[in-house]
Amino acid sequence: AGVGDGLSGDETLARMVEARGDGRFGGDTREDGEGGEGGDGDGDEGAGVEEGEGAADDDDDYRRSGGFCGCCGGWRRRRRRDGADGEGGDALDDDRNCCSRGFARFLDTSSVPPKDAYVKMFVFDLLVLVVSLFGWSSFQSVELKNDNISSYIKENRVPLGFLLFLVVQFVLIIADRCIYLYKSLGAKLALQLVEVVTVQLWLFFILPITNGEGHYTTEVVDHSDAVLAIWYLLKSCYFLISAYQVKHGYPTRILSNFLFKSYSIVNAVVFYTYRAIPFVYELRVLIDWACTDTTLSLFDWLKMEDIYAQLYLVRVSREGDKRPPRRRLGQKQPLSSKFWLGCMFIAVLVFVIWFPLLIMSLSNATAVPYPADAVTITITFNGYQPVFVMNSERTDVFPVSKGEVSQLQDRFGASYFAGLSIDGARKFVLSPSSKLLWGISPPSRANLTAAMDPLNPEPFTITFGYTFDRPYRSLADHAIEGERSMTLKQNSTVRAQLHKMVSATPPGQTMNATVPMLFPAFIHLPATGVGTAMIPGNASLVNATMSFTRGVDDTNHVLEWWGLYQSESAHSGQPTSDVEMWAFADSVSNETFSVFAGFGIVGLYVSVVLVVGRFLRMLVTNVSHKIIYEDLPDPDMIMLLCDDIYMARESGDLALEEMLFKELIMLYRDP
Question: Distance of alpha carbon 63 from its chain centroid, rounded?
């Protein structure tokens, strides 16, 4: 390099070593066959550099004279300074600034052709975001491994860590796009270094500590976790392509979308899909306008993008017309076209029209039982704290047999139990004594006793509440509550008995009071809502006996509690002392149809049928207004005008950009 320029040996070797430090020289030659910087360009493949012995000797002399740099690990250059030692004399001056110059040369991409690797970077960054979205459980502690995107959707919750993880990656994608539009290698290198260091520290040092281990370990997670390995592999591919982009530099001009470089059907389908994704097209256009020097306003920019996109689709259509077989004049449409376009569209429309009813029918046909597995009952007087509380144990829950259902149908009528799944029915047999002591305060007890007085003209209310619990399931309430209230009027016999129990029960004694029709024995549990009595009226209401016991412990401390008894079984009429409650739960949609069934028939018609119908109506109406744009015989001339606008913008000639855009608008206004 520089041999043919008449340079001295030291200057030639200095230029050669500088070129080697930049990666412009080495064992290989340049792609275009040039000898190197300062060469004569005759394709001599570095003649006089690799094969000349004199050049090698001069190189050794240069190294000996320059010395080794302990800062950067390379050989310091010595520059020739004219007139340094007397008149016309030459001297060698140490270049003490070799490391700072090396960084500047690192960002100097003038010796290599620029490359545009943004699409590849974007694809890998997008794949990383998708893997993060669906594989978030791999980044969590061991006890949270079962959490995933589907469970978050079902439970209507978004963890803060999950949200921040996705937002950070989304912001990095936007930042990468902005750097690409500004063509800033310094910003790209800084982003690359920050991302590489952050990912390594987080993945190999921070994540093991926060992954439920409690101490440092070199194991991030189990090696069988493929999601984490795929995430790291995709991120490494992104880093590799980013380094390639930094090495070669950004292209001087970014003219158009990479999809516009080909007019194939595949590119057109990808472009349609890209524009159909919500907010992606709009976000890209806004970022491009904000990060590009232009004279166009935002809405003019949107017009420009839409014009070019429409011209591209017209060009794809014109290219498709050139492909065989070409229809002759007067030739009718083939049956294959009628089948694929006509019959298929008819089938799709019929399916869309009947889709909501079909989904609801399949949802009911594939419904699964959703029985209750626990119940809690309470009794309160006039809204005070409960006097009786009882919740079931596992041994208190029994399945309902077909024989028992037949007895119920014979006693109360088959219509009340028709259509109910036996697998969703449960019988609860509860202990008659309350699980909690009656711990009311003295002032509240005095107020309650006064309210119980049968001579009190104010009504007295007894409320029997029940809560049935079920395992969590989407689109269904896991807890179904209900209650029955009865009002005791003045001079009521039950009211008088309850008043006597509270005010006159001696220590160590128990007093009882019969409360007719206190609670329903058979409860209907819908998928959502409130539990109600299966049988209307008073037929299934239970006559219960309430007891009040005032006991004394070993320290002569008075303890009080309430009890509840049934005189006979509700389904058989046999005597019993326990509390029986029967719960018949509706079947709920399985997980496959739960998303659609949650909307209901009206919701499905509004969200699916009307939306699809509106979209199809937009496609088949006002078609005549689009003829002037969609049926252009040859859009190439207009596309060339758009390319000239892009070229003027990238070249910095903004006046020419504005003039050409006005010409384009005038062309569309007066075609």
Answer: 59
